[in-house]
User: What shape does this take?
Amino acid sequence: MIKAVVFDFDDTLYRGETPVWTNWGTYLKTAFKSVVKDEKRLEEICEKYDVKPSTSYINVLQICQNENLNLRKLKRYIRKHIYMHSHDKIQTISDEFLKKLKENHALYVVTLSDQPYVKYYSKKYNIDRKNFRKMYSLNFFEDHPSKGNVYAKIIKKEKISPKELLVIGDNFDNDIIPARKLGAKTLYFKGDYNQIYDYFKNGEK
Assistant: This one.
């Protein structure tokens, strides 16, 4: 029986195409330009690290750290512009569903996004933070933790077995694999909220 449920934040609690993510490749290059003024060096860095539209935010920060670029300036740029991704066509998971679910389950969020971002978009998209016992944000530039470490922490905190934890997320590598390594149950979210609703409606697996 599932006693605790962990949700990813981006593309799980809310979903939809947004200006920044839809044009991520262009955005990424613009972000790099804020700290690399020389066009030739910019091209060399992009080629060296195979920078492409699928390159993640965390990878960008790591590249800047490796190349001794102004990491603080890049973070400021990204944080300033990342808040421009809101869109009218965003869909969010049902608040009624979450409130019902938390009656019998401990709910958590574990995300790679930082807390200011999570707070901003929770409010923007009317995601009630009170539905969750805690919303964890990972800081890759301290101890480089994985989501698996946080899942294990939740298991210990709730005094449950790994099989009593369900992890729901849209990223197989970041969300699903660490959970399966612990022996937790998983739901690989494909973008249709009925997938989540039906999971609980049809009986927990």
About this structure: The beta strands are 4-7, 14-15, 91-92, 106-111, 134-137, 165-169, 185-188.
